[in-house]
Amino acid sequence: MTAGPRRSAPSVLWVLTGLVGILSLTRGLAPGVTFPLLLLAQTAFTLLHGSRRYGWRAIAVFLGATLLISSAMESLSVYTGFPFGNYHYTLGLQVLGVPVLIGPTYAAIGYLAWTVATVLVGRVRRGSGPLVTVGTPVVASFAMVAWDLSMDPTRATIQRMWVWENGGGFFGVPLVNFLGWSFTTYLFLQAFALYLRSRGPVSAEPSGPDRAGDVQALVMYAATAATFLVDYVTGERKIVTDALGHQWRTADIYETSLLTTIYGMVFIVVLAGLTLARRGGTVPADPPDGPARRATAGATAGATAGVPASATAGVPAGTAR
């Protein structure tokens, strides 16, 4: 009964990947191609890809942690200035000063950043050690902030979707915004990593190596980066003014956005792609801690010497021949 849907899921993921690529390149250019439509396709990808890789319960934990932490931090900053600085939104239906689409956006891009980080560092699983459990969310948070670095000046200073009340040195956006992004994204990504370490799948990948799933996420992340190339090519050249009255040339903003995209997001895609190509079909996974690690090591040593694993248990390293 479930074999059909399981076999069709990879095809659906490729369709969603292609759809997101098309929508990213045509948003604002083709009639009816809107941000909510793009976000809907990205969210569908997150749910299907995440449920196949980690299970529905785990992806629900990811979404819950992301929506709760990101929305709380956004509202806190709107009312207090921490952690992103003083700003307010000007668009959409809002709850506690934050548009309802902001949380799902964190989740959709956050999942792509997470998957890219698992390629570069390793997949967190039950019993993973601290290097992967902490390193993966740290790298993922950098991949998230690389996106915000390219996005914020165009969406805020040019399009004024949100307004920085005290301005900032990066085309009207303050340094504290990016530090706040690092902090906030790390929090919900680390929460997900800790859940996977304690209650996630025992194996690195429940259904075996899923190289196609990694490639799909990389393509989606690259498509997100491509939107800033579209902005650079199609954006109107004019002078804009921030909340403090500082004037900025949009041509400079678009050019800087493209530069940060190339040497930030595109660099991450190239690095992850080379990592996948070098690794082939294998899945990097940090070995479990404690007794499981020692048992695995003993079994490996015994197999190498042609001795049953039980015969090598508890034998100091270097004594077996």
Automatic annotation (TrEMBL):
Residue ranges with Low complexity bias: 293-321
Keywords from the UniProt entry: Membrane, Transmembrane, Transmembrane helix
A Pfam family of this chain: Caroten_synth
Transmembrane segments: 12-42, 54-73, 93-117, 129-149, 169-196, 253-277
Region annotated Disordered, chain positions: 282-321
InterPro entries associated with the record: CruF-like (IPR007354)
Domain of life per record: Bacteria
Protein name, UniProt field: Carotenoid biosynthesis protein
Organism: Sphaerisporangium rufum
